[in-house]
Amino acid sequence: MTLDQMTPHPADSATETVVDAMDAPGPQVWDDMTVEVALSVMASAPSRHLLVYDEDGRCTGLIAQDQLTVVRDSSAYTDRVRLRDVFGDNGPFTSPMTTIAEAERTMRHGRLGALPVIDEHGCAVGVLALSR
């Protein structure tokens, strides 16, 4: 896997920051949304993940379609399960100033396909994704 690049020439991952390789934030949802509604949003968006926000407008993480599908298909699922019930701890996140090499290590270590890039106020400014 390699990092998706926004520019046609390869980035120097030791000095370039995630701003040079990140995608636009993409679909954003609130943590009080139900799993079923989130799956509907995802089905209508060309994205494999959703950024989740809390009631204060801060990004609390990223959730992938396969995570939502596992929850929906579980025996404990009801149509009242909300995203905040599915989420564990917040993060991981990265800063726009993180080097690509650092972010890639974090993603590989955590086996993450995508990583939210957030600013100092907790707002998502992009998503760094590994290509498959």
From TrEMBL:
It holds the Pfam family CBS. Residues 22-80 form the CBS domain. It comes from the Bacteria. The keyword Transferase does not apply. Keywords: CBS domain. InterPro entries: CBS_dom (IPR000644), CBS_dom_sf (IPR046342), Diverse_CBS-Domain (IPR051257). This is CBS domain-containing protein. It comes from Streptomyces rhizosphaericus.
